[in-house]
Amino acid sequence: MVRMPPIATPATLSTTERRKAAPPWLVMLLVCAGQFIVILDVSVVNVALPAMRTGLGLSELGLQWIVNAYVITFAGFMLLGGRAADLFGRKRIFVLGLALFTIASLAGGLAQEPWQLIAARTIQGVGAAVLSPATLTILTTSFPAGPARTKAIATWTAVGAGGGAVGGLVGGVLTEYLSWRWVLLINVPVGALVLIGAVLWLTESRQDTGRRLDVPGALLVTAGLGLVAYGIVQTETDGWTSAAALVPLAAGLVVLAAFIAVEARAKAPLMPLGLFRLRSVSSANAAMMLAGAAMFSMWYFLSLYAQNVLAYTPLEAGLSFIPHSLSIVLGSKIAPRLMNRMDAKSLAVGGAVISACGMVWQGTMDADGTYLGTILGPGILMALGAGLTATPVASIATSGADPADQGLVAGLINTSRQMGGALGLSVLSTIAASRIAGGHGRAALADGYGLAFHVGSVVLLGSILLMILALPRRQADVAQN
């Protein structure tokens, strides 16, 4: 589940702007609707993946790019989107991002070839990265500091969590009764209505700042991640020593090195490297990237297992994941309360251990699995642990940074999670495909998906060890780093 952090300091509206501003409830409705469809699109396609594969003739490995194309561009352009909203106007960027997202959704729903769908998902990710930060900054400039703004942000967070939670169910209903195309086309009428409302009723605001947009940085990090992910995918069919795998892998690493060089010299870098000198920031981002690499692909493999192995319909698969979605929301909601009783480091480690236990259990899946023992039990553990882990890790990262950098550090931790998830999906999908290729039928599929979960648990163990060894435990320790 994607959560967008605060990106920018709110601007002060003039008296004239306040007089013309729409009622707060209408502003809330518009920006939350925009955030909802962006988060919904992360999870809504998972249940539709088997139908997409059948409809467009996608390969087992190519299927992951329906997910990764969106996630990589979303993560790579997220911080850039937040800064663009501050510089060029929150309303203008909100409208631009929503229009791009809506048009790309239409193109994806009408795609006739795999490359067309993947291209549309890529553009959707860019639109989402532009739109999502603007939704929160519009809220913070529309509500005065204090209880009103706190309530608005809480509502925005709950709507985002709800989008991730109902994605599987919405995808199942649309795929079952209409077509897989409608998991994308549904964004068009909703996006058009929100777009009209935003143009008519939202008030423009921006920061007076001399900062520049680090477009080269965003392009380099996105291209680098994409090349590395593509190279990993190619290893399954061509091997690790083949040019088809080594060339994109090497090119991706060179591009990522160029990104670091650009960031070191940029006057207004997308990712200020100096922040990583803080132990709290560097260790939290590394731990979150590993955790994201392990946890992100859970929904992907569970959806394939439920439909390809257990023969669930898309609707049955969507319904079966409701307890998982509720568990991750529950974990996210109770984590702040638990942090009042125990330190953030212990909670993060505990949550990751719970999730790892679920992944080990999930890895025992076979062709004759049952819902209670094979999907429900381990799924709840994985999701609950994921919800418990994210908040304390983010809290540790932001607690060690200067107040002026809080929003940026929060954005970095979220970006690390999404980037780790994209690369993790590439690796785990390649491992699963290699195992599946060695067998036949439903048993081979179950074996491949199970291996992906077991390898994911090992990656998550690496994150747990990093948390234990590197994360500061006490608030005082964080402040000193």
Automatic annotation (TrEMBL):
**Record-annotated membrane-spanning stretches:** 25-49, 61-81, 93-111, 123-141, 153-174, 180-203, 215-233, 239-262, 283-305, 317-335, 347-363, 375-398, 419-437, 449-471
One of this protein's Pfam families, by short name?
MFS_1
Xref: SUPFAM superfamilies = MFS general substrate transporter
Q: Name its GO BP terms in alphabetical order.
A: response to antibiotic
Q: Which CDD domains match?
A: MFS_MMR_MDR_like (cd17321)
Localization (cell): Cell membrane
Record has Membrane as a keyword: yes
- What cellular component terms from Gene Ontology apply here? plasma membrane
Q: What is its main location?
A: membrane
Membrane-protein topology: Multi-pass membrane protein
Under the GO molecular function aspect, what terms does this record hold?
transmembrane transporter activity
Domain Major facilitator superfamily (MFS) profile per the UniProt entry, residue ranges: 27-475
Q: Which UniProt keywords apply?
A: Antibiotic resistance, Cell membrane, Membrane, Transmembrane, Transmembrane helix, Transport
According to UniProt, the name of this protein is: MFS transporter
Q: Which organism is it from?
A: Streptomyces chattanoogensis
